[in-house]
Amino acid sequence: MADFRAGERVRVRAVDPEGHTRVPRYVRGQVGRIVECQGRWALADECAAGIAEPRVEPVYTVAFAAGDLWGEGGHEVTVDLWESYIERVREDGA
Amino acid sequence: MSRVNDVGGQAGFGALEIEADEPPFHADWEARVFALNAVLVRNGVYRLDQFRDAVERMAPQEYLAASYYERWLHAIETLLAERGLLGDG
């Protein structure tokens, strides 16, 4: 279990699954900052696929700089993402 | 592959129309579709995420031509047909 903490930098996995997912295309591969955890919820992808006992994972609010996503804008964009959608960014940026 | 619904950040769709004092429904049939979906989810006919998936499975040209609740009705019909609960016609 990753157990991300507020302020940690995470990268959204650059997935493009066949079925339903709650990862908007505009954050895939992008680096953001954990804001807070919204509790544990059944993974929407597996619920949509009809899996009887879907994985239950923490959902995190992640903030992205609008400039990183759109190339402009000084505001932040926040997206709620299941744990398996994100990975920790190492200190060397990889 | 990304589906047709995933248009966040894409240009070319024009400005969002924001209605003053927008009612929840613009026609009675929309309210019925809303209620029908709630009843079907609550009774376990399908899950909410399966409903979302069914909306996203619409053919792109149909999806883009349909209104919000037309998409809902399409998804309900798809899911009921797939479960053998709705016949042709």
From the structure above, extract its key features.
heterodimer; A: 94 residues; mainly beta; SH3 type barrels; five-stranded antiparallel sheet; 5 strands; 11% helix; globular; B: 89 residues; mainly alpha; Cyclin A, domain 1; 4 helices; 0% strand; CN_hydtase_beta_dom_C (chain A); Nitrile hydratase beta subunit domain-containing protein (chain A); Elect_transpt_acc-like_dom_sf (chain A)
Named CATH topology of chain A = SH3 type barrels
Q: Beta-strand percentage of chain B? A: under 5%
Give the spatial strand order of the biggest sheet of chain A. Answer: 4-3-2-1-5
Oligomeric assembly: heterodimer
CATH architecture classification name of the domain at 29-82 in chain B: Orthogonal Bundle
Enumerate the spans of chain B where pLDDT stays under 50 for 5 or more consecutive residues.
Answer: none
Count of alpha and pi helical runs of chain B? 4
Structural class of chain A: mainly beta
CATH superfamily of the domain at 29-82 in chain B: Nitrile hydratase, beta subunit
* CATH architecture verdict of chain A: Roll
How large a portion of the residues of chain A is in β-strands, by DSSP E?
Answer: 35-45%
**Percent helix of chain A:** 10-25%
Q: Compute the gyration radius of chain B: what is it?
A: 15 Å
End-to-end C-alpha gap of chain B: 32 Å
What name does the CATH topology of the domain at 29-82 in chain B carry? Cyclin A, domain 1
Count the E strands of chain B: 0
Task: Give a description of the structure.
Chain A: InterPro entries: CN_hydtase_beta_dom_C, Elect_transpt_acc-like_dom_sf. Chain A: Residues 2-87 form the Nitrile hydratase beta subunit domain. Chain A: This is Nitrile hydratase beta subunit domain-containing protein. The complex is a heterodimer of chains A (94) and B (89). Chain A is mainly beta. Chain A starts with 8 loop residues before the first strand and ends in a 6-residue tail after the last strand. Chain A has 2 helices and 5 strands, in the order E-E-H-E-H-E-E. Chain A has helices spanning 44-48, 66-70, and strands at residues 9-12, 31-42, 56-65, 76-82, 86-88. Chain A has a 5-stranded antiparallel sheet with strand order 4-3-2-1-5. Chain A has a single domain, classed as SH3 type barrels (Roll), CATH 2.30.30. Chain B is mainly α and 89 residues long. Chain B has a domain at 29-82: Cyclin A, domain 1 (Orthogonal Bundle). Chain B contains 4 helices and no strands. In chain B, 13% of the residues are buried.
